[in-house]
Amino acid sequence: xxRKIIGFVAFIYDIRKKTMEIKEYSSDIKKTDEEIxxxxxxxxxxxxxxxxxxxxxxxxxxxxxxxxxxxxxEKAVRMAKMLSCDGFHITSGGSYGIMEAANKGALxxxxxxxxxxxxFLPFEQDTNPFTTRAVTLENFSVRKNMLVKNALACVxxxxxxxxxxxxxxxxxxxxxxKILPLNIYLYGSKFWTPLVDFVKTTLxxxxxxxxxxxxxxxxxxxxxxxxxxxxxxxxTYLELxxxxxxxxxxxxxxxxxxxxxxxx
Length: 264
What we know:
This protein has one domain: Rossmann fold (3-Layer(aba) Sandwich). Helices cover 54% and strands 13% of the residues. The chain contains 10 helices and 7 strands. The protein has helices at residues 2-21, 26-29, 33-51, 71-85, 98-109, 140-149, 161-175, 189-205, 223-243, 250-258; strands spanning 57-61, 89-92, 114-119, 133-137, 151-156, 183-187, 217-220. It has a 7-stranded parallel β-sheet, sandwiched between helices. Helix 4 packs parallel to helix 5 (98-109).
């Protein structure tokens, strides 16, 4: 019993020590409800202002830990460049790794904005130098919303908890019809297949999702195929907006003008 108590005390001490080392967290933890509300509104105002004249974007997710010599970093640069050349705007988390790669590729494509929605953290918090427009937000939930607010597709490269959180968040928004359907692509079959198998077997077997949603994600290692599939979806997306009574909206007109070369 004494050993268990000593072990527990040591565990608590370790947690407190780590908390003291990461003092940046205290600013969020100690916020009042009024301060939190103000923070959310400020983040929303920043995000909406950044996206005000943005038509159709593609959101790119992925690990912040990958360096320039990583194959997925290289592929993300290429993916973003291809889509930017086609006129798509690119949104990312605005920091390093795949996020940096996405903004770098968007900048190289020169035909779409390179947007970054960074998040204030005690790590991974600097905005990469490849954005044409960027803001730093305080709240994860607002950031995730802004990443996909103007997106008609998402491309997820391998990543950790944050990437998987973003993936499941946008999937949930689609399934619950809180946003218009987006095409979701998972680049890197070796990385993503186990997760997709879990969805198609365990979640289906336990009845926790409807079988029709088992194929909501599209795995591919072919960047050109992803590019063409996203381009092909633009016309369908516009038709859907029109059916839902959004044919006179500002965003509809922005997208129509943005892709008038291949939506006629």
